[in-house]
Design a protein that fits this description.
By secondary structure, this protein is of the alpha/beta class. It has eleven helices and 21 strands. It is 30% helix and 25% strand. Strands 4, 5, 6, 7, 8, 9, 10, 11, 12, 13, 14 and 15 form a twelve-stranded mixed beta sheet that branches. Strands 20-19-18-21 form a four-stranded mixed beta sheet, covered by helices on one side. Strand 19, helix 11 and strand 20 form a beta-alpha-beta unit. Helix 8 packs parallel to helix 9. The radius of gyration is 21 Å and the shape is globular. The termini are far apart. Bound molecules: zinc ion (ZN). The site of zinc ion (ZN) has 8 residues, from loops. This is Putative adenylate-forming enzyme.
Length: 413
């Protein structure tokens, strides 16, 4: 059980003593991993890490000697049974489909979860009093993590995106959140259907990238000055918007190196200065970040981003009796979770509901596994399974990368 006092401690720490990490902080973390993480022992220069290497050397890259097959087994079981309470050597194991396409497993201790919650609260809540907030949180999977925030001063309602959209919308309207947290696709749905029945003080977008046009639409409908964004992935809580609407990297506990692509665009290489169970050291992300060309007017010393490229996915539409049902990209990504992490894929839905799956390795086993997951999803959500076919993975890299894409309707304009 995550300790509320621990959360409070990290909340206050982040609120009061937040300053930009230094080379000295970085060196301290490197000294820790050289001592406690087998992979880094006897290493002079610390190499750049990526998800593939991280997964290959999983057993040597955590402090508890947890073996990858055990962690993977537990994570897949949790996904299948939707029971996320199982633990391994006292830590939580999570599975991420990731927007980069590769599957990843992550390990976090209670202490790290408390720190995560404390940091998020410190940075995401409006300035001033925290008492009395009602937070509505839309997520795909339930987690002990979110339950941990429940307390007297803050009420927290979890919305399982696996449930029918209408049920969630009804529940949301009766809950009347002051803070609304959801992926952009869900925020769009809310903004389109029940904007006049809600009056949140703050709206926070998570999990997927919020596109500029969508942000404006949600802002307008839900009467917000800014739509806040949490920049986060398996690799941790990386950044959040300030009151001016700029995403700043959490440079208080993330040591950032930039692999420049051009003058403003770069791949981030991050070192999390706090994580101990499965440290992220010089970890290169696939996201392309675009730096702001001028300092943010909020006065923050942390780097400000113009935007994050390449994480936007589409909602799919399926037939349900004589109606249609919308399915969030997260669910489609989940159908691809059970394939090997080294396989590249892209799922494309045509206007007639049919699906083409582009995949870098096609075997009968893989086809069967994906088909099974789609059938299960169709069964759970009650839609007719469309025709689908498999083709070799191909992608036109001059276009923006979308893993989960629906064909546009070409209306005359
Ligand atoms: Zn700012």
């Amino acid at each position: 059980m995550t300790n509320k006092l621990t959360i409070l401690k990290y909340y206050l720490k982040a609120k009061l003593f937040s300053k930009k990490a230094t080379q000295k902080d970085y060196d301290k973390q490197i000294a820790y991993v050289k001592k406690h993480i087998p992979y880094y022992k006897n290493m002079d220069a610390i190499p750049i890490m990526d998800k593939k290497t991280m997964m290959e050397h999983f057993d040597q890259l955590n402090a508890l000697g947890i073996v990858k097959s055990d962690a993977m087994h537990l994570a897949l079981e949790s996904e299948k049974t939707r029971d996320f309470s199982q633990r391994l050597k006292g830590v939580t194991v999570g599975l991420s489909s990731g927007t980069s396409g590769h599957r990843g497993i992550f390990l976090v201790s209670d202490q790290e979860q408390a720190m995560w919650v404390g940091n998020i609260l410190a940075k995401a809540l409006p300035k001033g009093k925290i008492k009395g907030h009602k937070v509505a949180f839309f997520m795909r999977a339930d987690s002990k993590l979110y339950q941990a925030i429940q307390s007297k001063s803050i009420s927290f309602e979890f919305f399982d995106m696996y449930k029918p959209i209408q049920d969630n919308l009804d529940k949301l309207v009766s809950f009347q959140p002051t803070i609304l947290v959801a992926p952009p696709s869900m925020l769009m749905k809310i903004a389109k259907t029940v904007p006049d029945k809600l009056s949140p003080k703050r709206v926070i977008s998570i999990a997927e990238v919020l596109e500029y046009e969508d942000s404006n639409y949600i802002k307008d409908k839900l009467k917000q000055d800014v739509i806040h964004q949490i920049y986060q992935c398996t690799e941790g809580f990386l950044g959040i918007t300030c009151d001016k609407g700029t995403i700043h990297i959490n440079e208080d506990f993330i040591y950032l190196e930039k692999e420049m692509i051009d003058e403003h665009r770069f791949y981030p290489i991050i070192t999390d200065l706090k994580r101990r169970t499965q440290p992220m050291i010089r970890y290169r992300l696939n996201d392309i970040l675009v730096m702001k060309s001028s300092p943010c007017s909020c006065g923050s010393k942390f780097i400000g981003l113009e935007k994050i490229e390449g994480r936007q996915d589409d909602i799919f539409i399926f037939k349900q009796n004589h109606q249609e049902i919308e399915v969030f990209p997260d669910f489609i990504r989940r159908c691809m979770l059970f394939i090997n992490e080294e396989i590249e894929y892209r799922v494309f839905q045509h206007q007639n509901h049919d699906i083409t799956i582009y995949i870098s390795k096609i075997t009968d086993e893989i086809k069967e596994s994906i088909t099974k997951e789609f059938r299960q999803l169709a069964n759970d959500l009650g839609f007719e399974i469309p025709a689908f076919k498999f083709l070799p993975y191909e992608y036109d890299f001059s276009r923006k990368l979308k893993r989960i894409e629906r064909e546009r309707a070409y209306a005359k304009s």
